[in-house]
Design goal:
By secondary structure, the protein is an alpha+beta fold. The protein has 14 helices and 16 strands. α1 runs parallel beside α5 and α2 runs antiparallel to α5.
Length: 572
């Protein structure tokens, strides 16, 4: 039996062991806290070093999972509407599991609770919360939950979601505190990454504008520059389709000159109304027009089908209402991709405005160069009038006088034909002189110049240059009102060939004999199908009937279509 003396010796020893154990526990707790603070600082530094936004978001999710020892972690980015998630980054779930689960969540249930009430949320069991309504099939089981909002400059950017603390433990207040600290650092990192991304985007837009200006001022073809505008805008915004449309003179529509990307062939050459297309609405309003889903947008005509696989879209005018809208650029992303944010639309609008200024400068430079050309043309016209015509007229008079002294009947007929040929040559030269003296671009362009311009603008869409032949006094005999109809018919005919004929050759003949004007457009394409749509041809026929003329269609010799449009000339 233990003596009283031995008991007194053992009692202090027991108290010492208890004190040592308590001290060890406190040391372990302090060491754990130190290690956790050290891990938190490392996580903050790691996240802060990232300048790429996607990588920064990935680092934040990974750091959060490690700090609170969670098996699963996710970061949901709140979309522009402030009610749904536009992106979702996960840790702990494999690619195979994600594929079996299906689409990423949009922000319902517990995830939506944090969107509606951006405050820390800690749950011992997810299924017991009133907002919970279960998980989809193949989703891993989750019980414990911790969610905290991430704010960027006092605005909620998204939320951190952490589930299943390892070892079956519950998330505690310290976990909340650590995660909130990480969320603050994450907000700073996201802001820095955004600013860096914006600066890089701004630099890319500036480079694109400089490239477009250089190409325009170097004299590159307009079609090449329009293609460059579409390509650069599509690349920078991550669009699957980019198209540029320009107004069509005299018919109140716009035509798609350039299209690159998904199903570009279905867009190239389209003539779009101003009230039933995104590009038309953007042109008529001189303001950007956006669509969340271009396929199901009621403002877009369903025919022809041309937006398969595409979703968000934006149409931005090239130029402003005050300076005149020169055209429209359309961008569309694949279905399921983010909408075009307001900041993106504003940047794109600035890019289009700069492109319009570059086009204006190029035109002014071209006008200055044309002044010199017009001076030469005036000189040539004077020389033709003062020298060539007078000589031909004198020669004709001499032959006509000499014809009276020729007794041989056949020789007399030949001289008479020569006089007629000289007379016709004089008429042609006079028409040429009038054409040389016409000031293009000053509102005085004659029918010849306008027709040549339409054919030149159609060449990039067709993929080849049509052949053109003109006869008669088109600029003097054809009134402006009828000339406007001729230009519109020629433009629509070439557009129809580009869209439907699949031709490799087109011939345009425009002629007048002083009594009527005739336009013939012939191609070697597929012809007009029996069950094809004829609304465009109906428009051409209506124009002819309004002027007392007619439209005739026939099969060309090489299997294509021969269109003949002719109306009488009504001189004032």
């Amino acid at each position: 039996m233990e003596s009283p003396e031995e008991a007194r010796v053992r009692l202090p020893q027991l108290r010492l062991d208890e004190l040592l154990e308590e001290l060890q526990a406190r040391l372990d707790a302090a060491r754990g806290t130190r290690d956790r603070v050290h891990s938190l600082l490392e996580a903050v530094l790691s996240v802060g070093r990232e300048l790429d936004l996607e990588q920064a978001l990935r680092r934040i999710v990974e750091a959060a999972a490690v700090l609170v020892d969670a098996e699963y972690a996710a970061l949901g980015v709140i979309g522009p509407d402030g009610r749904r998630l536009s992106a979702f980054h996960t840790v702990g779930v494999s690619e195979e599991q994600i594929a079996r689960i299906g689409p990423y969540p949009e922000g319902h249930g517990i995830l939506g609770e944090l969107i509606r009430h951006p405050e820390p949320l800690r749950l011992a069991k997810i299924s017991e919360h009133p907002s919970s309504y279960g998980f989809p099939a193949h989703h891993p089981p989750m019980n414990t939950f911790l969610g905290v909002p991430i704010r960027v400059r006092d605005q909620v950017f998204g939320n951190l979601y952490l589930t299943e603390k390892r070892g079956g433990a519950q998330f505690d207040e310290e976990d909340v505190s650590v995660t909130l600290t990480l969320a603050v650092a994450a907000g700073v990192a996201i802001d820095n990454a955004r600013l860096y991304e914006e600066s890089r985007l701004r630099e890319r837009w500036l480079r694109a504008n400089a490239e477009i200006t250089h190409r325009l001022m170097s004299g590159d073809a307009r079609s090449d520059v329009l293609a460059l505008i579409a390509e650069r805008a599509g690349e920078i915004t991550g669009s699957a389709l980019a198209a540029v449309a320009l107004p069509m003179e005299g018919i109140g529509s716009i035509a798609v000159e350039v299209a690159v990307g998904m199903d570009a062939e279905a867009h190239r050459g389209l003539v779009l109304p101003l009230d039933r297309s995104l590009m038309g609405l953007a042109f008529s309003s001189a303001a950007p027009v956006t669509s969340a889903d271009v396929i199901h947008d009621e403002r877009v005509s369903p025919e022809p089908p041309r937006f398969a696989g595409l979703g968000p879209a934006v149409a931005v005018p090239i130029g402003t209402g005050d300076e005149g809208t020169r055209g429209v650029v359309l961008l569309a992303r694949k279905a399921g991709q983010p909408l075009f944010a307001a900041t993106e639309t504003e940047t794109l609008q600035a890019f289009a405005a700069q492109a319009a200024i570059a086009m204006e400068l190029a035109e002014r430079r071209k006008d200055a160069e044309q002044v010199a050309v017009l001076r030469d043309r005036d000189r040539i016209a004077r020389d033709l009038h003062d020298l060539a015509i007078q000589r031909l007229f004198a020669t004709g008079m001499t032959l006509q006088s000499a014809g009276r002294f020729i007794e041989h009947e056949e020789a007399g007929e030949r001289v008479a034909r020569a006089v007629d040929d000289l007379d016709e040559t004089i008429k042609i030269i006079r028409s040429t002189i009038f054409g040389l003296r016409t000031r293009e671009g000053a509102g005085e362009a004659g029918l010849r110049a306008r027709a040549v311009r339409v054919v030149g603008e159609a060449a990039p869409v067709l993929g080849f240059a049509p052949s053109v032949r003109m006869d008669g006094l088109l600029d003097t005999d054809v009134p402006k009102e009828i000339a406007d109809h001729v230009v519109a018919v020629l433009s629509e005919s070439l557009t129809n060939i580009a869209r439907h004929a699949h031709a490799t050759r087109t011939e345009v003949v425009l002629a007048t004999d002083g009594r009527e004007v005739r336009l013939s457009v012939t191609d070697n394409g597929a012809g007009i199908p029996a069950d094809g749509r004829r609304s465009g041809l109906r428009n051409l026929a209506d124009r002819a009937e309004q002027l007392g003329g007619r439209l005739e269609l026939a099969e060309a010799e090489d299997g294509g279509t021969a269109l003949m449009w002719q109306v009488p000339i009504q001189k004032p």
